[in-house]
């Protein structure tokens, strides 16, 4: 319900918590920002202001002039100091209230790389850190900034309306659906169990959009982000719904673990306009080797040579339904693009 997100930053400048709506404003996933240093998100010029407000007395220690602090690259607070509780003002003191402006890095397309946020909150004791001093003794809870971060410029009515329609889905690396948020269930009509039972996520994609989506899938596996992709998804009512999507890889221990896709429904006129602009040539051919990602055999069983017949995707779609009987016989992988098309009900077209 907030026009913003909740942020908890330790006195050392580490992000301890952020609410999931941080993705709506900055484009970073909730899981991806903690426990990283807030220094990575704050614009360089705003680092000192952020450090100053994280310090209980608004007076963080300075590095000696001309000498960069050894910890400067690690966190906003270049030399974290552990204070005893009796050295600090009482927690309900108005002296610990904070309100300041910082420019944060932003990955969304509607900004110039940075978004000015007003952080309003207070310093409170953050429990459960279990930190120890150099001699091994347990340190008492230290102050952390608990703040609500809101954009300095209020959003337009169009942005609010658009934000209210956005839904997110979670997928395995091969695009198999794992989860869907509440708005996605309303837009598409499926429960999470129904999404998972259907197998590959390409079973929900229109046949004429499959190669286009697969190309961006390959790009995302190489670069970490798919870029804006406009395509049609099959709803539970057997209707096609145009969406504008952007997929990102989420890493764990420096390895890609799953995919998060942010999707915004479009009206049919918008989708049709994108379709007209889309290049008509196939995004990749069997010669590039990228088709191996989807385990497509070549030549395809029961299909004419595409380099001789020059058939379009729609022709492949029709042919695949007429050869439905050879689906198991020829051993076509159901998770491949061809398998996904053949498992769709031809009545939806």
Automatic annotation (TrEMBL):
An example of a Gene Ontology BP annotation on this entry? xenobiotic metabolic process
Q: Write down a Pfam family by its short name.
A: PAS_3
Q: Which residues form the PAS fold-3 domain?
A: 179-262
Q: Which InterPro entries match?
A: AHR/AHRR, PAS, PAS-like_dom_sf, PAS_fold_3
- Keyword Nucleus present in the record's keywords: the answer is yes
Its main subcellular localisation, reduced to a broad class, is: nucleus
Q: Which domain of life is it from?
A: Eukaryota
Q: Which Gene3D superfamilies match?
A: PAS domain
Q: Keywords on this record?
A: Activator, DNA-binding, Nucleus, Receptor, Transcription, Transcription regulation
Q: Composition bias, kind Basic residues: at what positions?
A: 312-321
Instruction: Enumerate the residue ranges of region (Disordered).
Output: 305-328
Query: Which Gene Ontology molecular function entries are recorded, alphabetically?
Result: nuclear receptor activity; transcription cis-regulatory region binding
Q: Which CDD domains match?
A: PAS
The subcellular localization recorded is:
Nucleus
Record-level GO cellular component terms? aryl hydrocarbon receptor complex; nucleus
Q: Which PANTHER family match?
A: ARYL HYDROCARBON RECEPTOR, ARYL HYDROCARBON RECEPTOR 1 BETA
Name listed for the protein in its UniProt record: Aryl hydrocarbon receptor
Q: Which organism is it from?
A: Gavia stellata
């Amino acid at each position: 319900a907030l026009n913003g997100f909740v942020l908890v930053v330790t006195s050392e400048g580490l992000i301890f918590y952020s609410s999931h709506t941080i993705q709506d404003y900055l484009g970073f996933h909730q899981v991806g920002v903690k426990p990283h240093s807030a220094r990575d998100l704050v614009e360089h010029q705003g680092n000192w202001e952020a450090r100053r407000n994280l310090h209980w007395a608004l007076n963080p220690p300075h590095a000696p002039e001309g000498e960069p602090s050894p910890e400067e690259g690690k966190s906003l607070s270049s030399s974290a100091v552990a204070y005893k509780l009796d050295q600090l003002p009482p927690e309900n003191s108005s002296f610990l209230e904070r309100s300041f402006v910082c420019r944060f890095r932003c990955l969304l397309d509607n900004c110039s790389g940075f978004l000015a946020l007003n952080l309003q909150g207070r310093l409170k004791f953050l429990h459960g850190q279990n930190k120890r001093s150099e001699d091994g003794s347990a340190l008492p809870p230290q102050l952390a900034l608990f703040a609500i971060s809101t954009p300095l410029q209020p959003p337009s009515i169009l942005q609010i309306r658009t934000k209210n329609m956005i839904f997110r889905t979670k997928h395995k690396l091969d695009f198999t659906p794992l989860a869907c948020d509440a708005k996605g269930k309303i837009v598409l009509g499926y429960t999470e169990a129904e999404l998972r039972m259907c197998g590959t996520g390409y079973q929900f994609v229109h046949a004429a959009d499959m190669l286009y989506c697969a190309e961006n899938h390959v790009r995302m596996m190489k670069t970490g982000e798919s870029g804006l992709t406009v395509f049609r998804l099959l709803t539970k009512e057997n209707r096609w719904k145009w969406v504008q999507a952007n997929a990102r890889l989420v890493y764990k221990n420096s390895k890609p673990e799953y995919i998060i896709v942010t999707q915004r429904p479009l009206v049919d006129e918008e989708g049709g306009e994108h379709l007209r602009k889309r290049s008509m040539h196939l995004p990749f051919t069997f010669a590039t080797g990228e088709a191996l990602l989807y385990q497509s055999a070549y030549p395809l069983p029961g299909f004419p040579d595409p380099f001789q017949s020059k058939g379009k995707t729609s022709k492949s779609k029709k042919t695949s339904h007429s050869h439905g009987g050879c689906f198991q016989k020829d051993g076509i992988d159901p998770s491949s693009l061809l398998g996904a098309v053949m498992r769709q009900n031809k009545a939806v077209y």
